[in-house]
Amino acid sequence: MTELVLLRHGETDWNRELRFQGQVDVPLNATGHAQAQRLAQRLMAEPIDHLVSSDLSRARQTADPFAQQVQAARGIGLAVDAALREQAFGRIDGMRVEDIKRDHADVWAGWTQFQSDYVVPEGESTRQFHARVMSALWQLVASHPGKTLAVVTHGGVLDMVFRTARGLGLEGPRQSAIPNAGISRVRMQDGVVELLQWADTAHLDVMPAQPVYDQQRLAR
């Protein structure tokens, strides 16, 4: 049985603005870098066998402090996998909610139905996204059976894992908290995803309050 320690990237300025970051390559802000340092300190006691990150800057910058420590202490390098990117939102990638409502009202109306096969023009549907994410994770599990893997990725990716573990299906808005630099844990074996822990932020104590991405509220 392979255990995955799932880590969302640290904060970006676009998180603060509640933009659809998607696959735009946005860097961490100062708070995000501080969160990454806290995350590295928290993870040093973990028996990590392999470290992999989405190739987008905000994920790689979150992974870097921990990667430097485990490279020096254990000789574990950082692998990068583009299949762990956030969902592609196509035409509205990088846009703020109010701007999408104004300039792409039809896209906003479609997206807020939260249907699994709806595709933002030039983007990917939730079903396509889910298939990409879970395929990438199962490939990691197959390559590292019985190991503990740290995976630095994005909120949407973690949502796909949570839905899979809880059997929630792909329709409807997000039903889990997914904080920046939070730690979640699952076990994966024989097609089963077992949820062990979700959205642990004890290592971020006394840091600034995080922006809250609430799909149900945004859709109103």
Short account of what is shown:
The protein has 220 residues and is α/β, with parallel strands linked by helices. It has 8 helices and 6 strands.
- The CATH H-level homologous superfamily: Phosphoglycerate mutase-like
Low-confidence sequence ranges: none
Overall mean pLDDT stands at 95
One letter per element, helices H and strands E, the order comes to EHHEHEHHHEHEEH
Rg measurement, Å:
17 Å
Number of discrete helical segments: 8
Instruction: Predict the CATH topology.
Output: Rossmann fold
Number of strands: 6
CATH class: Alpha Beta
Q: Termini separation (Å)?
A: 41 Å
- Biggest sheet strand order reads 3-2-4-1-5-6
Comma- or semicolon-separated keywords:
220 residues; alpha/beta; Rossmann fold; six-stranded mixed sheet; 8 helices; 6 strands; 16% strand; globular
Report what the structure shows.
This protein has 220 residues and is an alpha/beta fold. Helix content is 38%, strand content 16%. Strands 3-2-4-1-5-6 form a six-stranded mixed beta sheet, with helices on both faces. A hairpin with a 2-residue loop joins β5 and β6 (192-200).
How are the SSEs placed, and which strands pair?
Layout: E1 2-8, H1 13-16, H2 30-43, E2 50-53, H3 57-74, E3 78-80, H4 97-103, H5 105-111, H6 126-143, E4 148-153, H7 155-166, E5 183-189, E6 192-200, H8 215-218
Parallel strand pairs: 1-4, 2-3, 2-4
Antiparallel strand pairs: 1-5, 5-6
